[in-house]
Amino acid sequence: NMKRLMSDEKIIQAFSILKSCGIQVNSFNILGFIGETPQTILKTVKLNALVSPAIVFNAYFYPFPGTQAYNLARGKKYRIDEDVGSFFEKPVVRLDTIKQGQLIFFYKYFYFLMRLYGFLGKRFGAESKAVKAFDKIITSKFFPYFIFNLLHFGKDDVLAILRRHPFLYVF
Prior knowledge:
two-stranded parallel ribbon
């Protein structure tokens, strides 16, 4: 729980008001916070699908030393990878509530899932059997997250490799 000081309803209302005034509204989502599960990420995906931001920014939770979040992660004995160069690169904290591959999958496919849930919600209803069935599939321990993660190899992945292995730069 990130101690967010606003409800989903307030967020939906704020997006609606700003859009009605012609203001472009974006969202910034942090994935992998302490206690995060596939279900809580899907809740965030669905909220984004509902408000339909113009641009979606995602980052992995990155607890900086000396912060309450860092102390909380240390207190729960979570492994914190402090060698990560950016909170866009890979998960920093190893959680016991979501597998690393699942977290990476939801990060990489967030925008796709947001659009898919937006479509399913409009076509069948947000609480329809189709949406609930897809929820079960996408959060199943048998879902092949690793295959999708291998298939999605983008610019961020290349940059992360080059940061770790600078000798790969070609001049």
